[in-house]
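Obj.: predict assembly geometry.
Materials: sequence records (below).
Method: joint structure prediction, all chains together.
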Amino acid sequence: MSHKNTDAFWNTDWMEQQRQYLEAWQAFNQFMPKSPITGKKDTNPLTEAMEYWWKSASPSMPEGSTEFLTKMMEQGRVYYILSEQFSKLLKNINELSKSSEDWQSALNDQFEELKKIFVHAQGDAKTGMGGMFGAWQMLPLDNLQRAFSSASVLPGDFLEDLKPENIQKVTDKFLSIPGVGYTRETQEQIQDGIRLWNNYQKVSMEYNHAMANVSLKALDMMRNKIIHMAEEGKEIHSLREIYDLLVDCGEEAYAEFTYTKEFSDLYGRLTNALMAVKHHGRNIVDEMLGALNMPTRRGMNTVLKRHQEMHRESKLTSRKLEQLQEDMTALKRAMNGNGKDSNRKSADTSVKTKEKAVDKQKADRKNGRRKALKKNAADKKSGKKAGKKTSARKDNMIVIKI
Amino acid sequence: MIPFQMRPDEILHEVNEFNAKLAQGINTLAEIGDIEVGVSKKTPVYQEDKMVLYRFEPHVKKTNPVPLLIVYALVNRPYMADLQDGRSIIQGLLDAGLEVYLIDWGYPDSADRYLTLDDYINGYTDRCVDVICKEHKLKKINILGICQGGTFSLCYTALHQDKVKNLITTVTPVDFHTKDDLLSKMVRNVDVDLLVDTMGNIPGELLNMTYLSLKPFRLVGQKYMDLVNLLDDKEQARNFMRMEKWIFDSPDQVGEAFREFTKQFYQNNGLVKGKVKIGDHKIDLENITVPVLNIYAASDHLVPPDSSRALKGCVSSKDYTELEFPGGHIGIYVSGKAQKLIPPTVGEWLDKRT
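Observations (raw structure tokens):
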């Protein structure tokens, strides 16, 4: 693959940029001050280089792969942030006296810094740490908003920008005014919508808060596990091991919360609150469409429901008809003495069995007749025989009727 | 002792190596092209609305005379059972001398919104069974249910036992209220009526995300980190992408069926309580007396083993067998271990009962 390729996707300048950044960063690292815990998000040169490259390369990526590759890039960011944080930690530790208290104190400081970045990143999916905890972006809240955005006139993103703290004061006053005049119903409808919206925002903040606590707990767990590893004499040899430890702790903290009744209740309230907003919005849209004499969702539902009922009945009727036709065909064939319908195996078998029985009876009777002749009682026997023959035919007829 | 046994420059070296792999991996992914799924030859033998019944071409001349119908879940696509050469349960079943049929539910749209569980179980499934019975001149066939399809198969068998010779359930939820069932806890307090009345059909994307959120760090993060290490091997990358395609190929869920399933099974745990109603029929698992083979996965995070194992105490079958697979919900169909264990076991179990 030529490095001169003009296609941004094949452009490997990113690697060159990474190399330059690494060199620059290493040089810069020599003069880095000792772990300032500012809480402000540091700029990671590797992340920046990757972002820059990704911006230019992603438009030329094969369609359909972009989302998938984005996930990989997000994990790349995780690695860069972790590398930065733990490089700082190791540098600080190296400068310490290596006593247990000293390195644990440095570890605590570094985790406090991580926590601040973490909390900051949770509200911002576009930051480097957003990628680190990309998992949180997939969590129910955002997931619900995106998946349900089509269910309302308001897109999912719209929900993100309206925060209750900004509109609470205004809405409280507005909602306390009773609807008046000929637009009273509309006013009440809007007020209801805002009430539902406020409720959703409150639950959503509650949910975010709970998840933030989980993420902080995950970091606490990680720090404790590292200390525990030190006590047990276990060693960490790579950044990947640190990353895996972070994943384990994240899952553990998440599971600890999500398996509780509290989570189940919160998740239910969150979904229901969002659905209430969307449902209200849908009703308003329906009313507008109805006023314009256009098809409404409600009307469509009625049609679809009726259609499904008719479809169901039609299938049942077809099935009954098919069964009747099969029975009829079998009956006709049997009446014509042609019982070779493969679909009526059981009926055929029954007919054949009966026929065999009749044949056996005939043979028995033949033997009996011979004996009877010997006994010179032919007339009487012959009379009975004729009667039985009729009966046998009747048996045969009964089978046919079946 | 300080556990960190690496220097900052070693970390940078590791990051640099990661960068190189990532860059190389992106090139590999771009060269992979289209991903094909479904390897075994099959023919559609019956079609109704969006549902298609497929018959797979037998691999051996002398097959088990009783065909096997695979009832798949409404969630995701059934090609997971026939993902690729060497990772296909269907291939294994065909090799084991079985005649295999499969129900593909298709991709429902808004016109299908009012399909109910009754339509799926007593309608489509029953008609598929009739078609197979007619084709093979039999009164009973074998049924194998996958996940939710297993739950459907249980309901079907409870109602139409005269048409089922043997029943096999795989990773099938039966008790929906086991303590380690996170999915159940998530939906327990959701107002399903409001959800379905608002949304109509439930978007497949929502289900995907819900499944990912059961183990978000592993499924959204770590998995892709592992991928970076696989990307220098095009075949491994292709396998990964194939699974990825399946995971995110998720049909929307028909509103009414979703409402019924979530309320009756997940929220009310009606299957073990004998309170599920399909159409006008009550489902009593005690009605099931046919031989049952219940296969579950020991590390299943979607259908916990306890949920599947609950079947034992619910059915009346005297011939009841359990098989624990050492793996997860998906691994039971696609892993190499599964190919060696599951199809031969199913084949032998059925042969003994035919």
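Conclusions so far: Chain B has one domain: 42-352.
To do: check interface contacts against the pulldown list.
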